[in-house]
Design brief:
The complex is a heterodimer of chains A (108) and B (113). By secondary structure, chain A is mainly beta. Chain A has no helices and eleven strands. In chain A, strand 6 and strand 7 form a beta hairpin. In chain B, strands 2, 4, 5, 6, 9, 10 and 11 form a seven-stranded mixed β-sheet that branches. Chain B has a four-stranded antiparallel β-sheet with strand order 1-3-8-7, with no helix packed on it. The chains are: A mainly beta (108), B mainly beta (113).
């Protein structure tokens, strides 16, 4: 069993739709990270969370520490949002675990 | 956040040869990591690069195949040795900084023929 589980694995949406990607983890963590990887391979940091909620533009990330769950929301989705979204968690003691990623395709 | 320069961005190599990938960080960072991403897969940690000492390798990765150097807090290299087609992947370095989290290099796309 992976320490970090993401769902869905693949997601196709129409432009303008509200999108949710989920991340569940089974270990105690000190921080959770949402990453975005475009087809060219480069990885960009979107958010780092240890509690609550963060918003940046059309992106919102939430985390519930008690439930060991985080969500990434994209409002008014656009084709340029098409990418792989990866959830990563950091434990105390510098252990890191990555989800397998959610591949998002937004169709015009 | 830190800025990482990773080279080369891509290479095509012959079976049996070795390739060294470099990562230069614009600031001193304690935690630096090397990852492999095989086609269609997520990231797999190869090793943690430790400054001034031997790297810490994950299960399934060994120093003879993936020697790593970290001479200071801003630079590291990963060598992929005696390559085979199964080593064709994207290789990425990253650093972790408290308060910001992960920063990744742009990746090295390796094709072994």
């Amino acid at each position: 069993k992976n320490e970090v589980e993401q769902s869905p694995q693949n997601l196709t949406a129409q432009e303008g739709e509200f999108i949710t990607i989920n991340c569940s983890y089974s270990v105690g963590i000190s921080a959770l990270h949402w990453l975005q990887q475009h087809p060219g391979g480069g990885i960009v940091s979107l958010f780092m969370l240890s509690s609550g909620k963060k918003k940046h533009g059309r992106l919102i990330a939430t985390i519930n520490i008690q439930e060991k769950h985080s969500s990434l929301h994209i409002t008014a989705s656009h084709p340029r949002d098409s990418a792989v979204y990866i959830c990563a968690v950091k434990r105390a003691g510098n252990q890191f675990y990555f989800g397998t990623g959610t591949s998002l395709t937004v169709i015009p | 956040s830190a800025v990482i320069s990773q080279k080369p961005s891509r290479d095509i190599c012959q079976r049996g040869t070795s390739l060294t990938i470099q990562c230069q960080v614009d600031s001193q960072v304690t935690m630096m990591f090397w990852y492999r991403q095989q086609p269609g897969q997520s990231l797999t940690l190869i090793a943690t690069a430790n400054q001034g000492s031997e790297a810490t390798y994950e299960s399934g990765f060994v120093i003879d195949k993936f020697p790593i150097s970290r001479p200071n807090l801003t630079f590291s290299t990963l060598t992929v040795s005696n390559m085979s087609p199964e080593d064709s992947s994207i290789y990425l370095c990253s650093v972790w900084t408290d308060g910001y989290g992960y920063t990744f290099g742009s990746g090295t796309r390796l094709t072994v023929v």
